[in-house]
Amino acid sequence: MNRNELGRPIEILLVEDNPGDAELTAEALRQGKVCNQMHLVEDGEAALAFLRRQDNMQAYRVRM
User: Fold this and answer.
1) Which is more confidently placed, 53 or 24?
2) Is the pLDDT of residue 56 over 60?
3) Cα 60 to the chain's mean position, in Å?
4) Cα separation values, 28 from 17, 18, 32, 34, Å
5) Residue 31 pLDDT more than 90?
6) Are the C-beta atoms of residues 13 and 51 closer than 8 Å to each other?
7) Which spans in the chain are helix H?
8) Whole-angstrom Cα distance, residue 34 to residue 14?
9) What pLDDT is recorded for position 34?
10) Reported pTM
11) In degrees to the nearest 10, what's the CA dihedral of 23, 26, 30, 32?
12) What is d(CA 32, CA 53) in angstroms, rounded to the nearest whole number?
């Protein structure tokens, strides 16, 4: 599956404080060939800030 077949990639906000678990999730999405744009934050407060598009939040883009 590629971007042209499915249109726009889906947006995923992963809230995970364990880097190992975040990597496992990213790997599973890669293996499943899920066309996505994943952002990673470490807690609920950062997730809300991301969703509100606050400038001082820290989200990490995960390369797929």
Assistant:
1) 24
2) no
3) 8
4) 17, 16, 6, 9
5) yes
6) yes
7) 3-6, 19-31, 44-51
8) 14
9) 86
10) 0.70
11) 110
12) 29
